[in-house]
Amino acid sequence: MFPKAAAGYSYEDCRATADWLLAQTSLRPLVGIVCGSGLGGLAEALKDQVVFNYKDIPNFPHSTVNGHAGRLVFGTLKGKPCICMQGRFHLYEGYPVQKITLPMRIFKLLGVETVILTNAAGGLNQDYKVGDIMIIKDHINMPGFAGNNPLAGPNDERFGVRFPCMSDAYDRELQQLAQDVGAELGYSDFMREGVYCVLGGPSFETIAECRMLHKLGADAVGMSTVHEVIVARHCGMRVFAMSLITNQAVMDYDSEEKANHEEVLQTGEQRSKQLERLVSAMVTRIEHNTNYA
Ligand SMILES: O=P(O)(O)O[C@H]1O[C@H](CO)[C@@H](O)[C@H]1O
């Protein structure tokens, strides 16, 4: 039922990749950051960088999407050890869902305790504007409804339990921290919180699909993040995620708007400095069990 190609990587494969990385750098990251489309600039805030191209990392998939550089960056943010994915993997690139989430298991084996995920998304909530930052409080996993869940297949208890809870997927303390930090930075006017819905892509949604998703309770729609969140929670990492609303989902048959990736990347560029400040300030204030000083 689960052909080998779709089964992802074994615990030993993940361990081998993590050990390979650990052997190349003395940095031991506590925070893992994933940059969404056009948001790779987040990695630039890291000091004392050690950078790996995905194509040089054993077992790692390769980035194929414009706006996803395909580099894994180790470094520090105000002294705190971090790892940052400059580019992620998506279902529509043709990877099985178990493979696009491999980096979350590598993060775990490297010692990461907290994951911060970012993405570009289309706004379904009519109160949202392009450029808003939405703190994700919950998700709707559409591919999961059809059985395409990254945890489908044999479960290795060394990562986590067979039936992980997802009602607490998005850490509430970290959501509050983001609100506090956002307010201190003067970002409250463009910060929202809401529900993110993942679809398979790569085609953008039809008008009828956007209307349906909105009725179902989604505030933003995208093609990523949720799979990573599920795998990160399965192996016990704390998760914070946010969407940059890069475009308004088209909900109206009279509209001339057309979703396009260029607009997505452009909005990412415009908000990248603010996102960088928000993430940096959050990272410095997240408490960890390990004393990294
Ligand atoms: O979710 P991220 O990786 O930010 O990318 C978003 O942007 C792309 C569409 O423009 C899709 O890949 C969508 O998921």
Automatic annotation (TrEMBL):
Record-linked CDD domains: PNP-EcPNPII_like
Q: Which GO terms fall under molecular function for this chain's record? A: purine-nucleoside phosphorylase activity
Is Glycosyltransferase one of the keywords UniProt gives this record? yes
Q: Which UniProt keywords apply?
A: Glycosyltransferase, Purine salvage, Transferase
Name the EC number(s). 2.4.2.1
Pfam families with a match to the protein in the record: PNP_UDP_1 (PF01048)
Any idea which positions bind phosphate?
37, 68, 88-90, 120, 224
Q: Which reaction does it catalyse?
A: guanosine + phosphate = alpha-D-ribose 1-phosphate + guanine; 2'-deoxyguanosine + phosphate = 2-deoxy-alpha-D-ribose 1-phosphate + guanine; 2'-deoxyinosine + phosphate = 2-deoxy-alpha-D-ribose 1-phosphate + hypoxanthine; inosine + phosphate = alpha-D-ribose 1-phosphate + hypoxanthine
A cellular component term from Gene Ontology for this protein is:
cytoplasm
Q: Which family does it belong to?
A: Belongs to the PNP/MTAP phosphorylase family.
Q: What does this protein do?
A: The purine nucleoside phosphorylases catalyze the phosphorolytic breakdown of the N-glycosidic bond in the beta-(deoxy)ribonucleoside molecules, with the formation of the corresponding free purine bases and pentose-1-phosphate. Catalyzes the phosphorolytic breakdown of the N-glycosidic bond in the beta-(deoxy)ribonucleoside molecules, with the formation of the corresponding free purine bases and pentose-1-phosphate. Preferentially acts on 6-oxopurine nucleosides including inosine and guanosine.
PANTHER family linked to this entry: METHYLTHIOADENOSINE/PURINE NUCLEOSIDE PHOSPHORYLASE (PTHR11904), PURINE NUCLEOSIDE PHOSPHORYLASE (PTHR11904:SF12)
Protein name per Swiss-Prot or TrEMBL? Purine nucleoside phosphorylase
Q: Organism source for this protein?
A: Anguilla anguilla
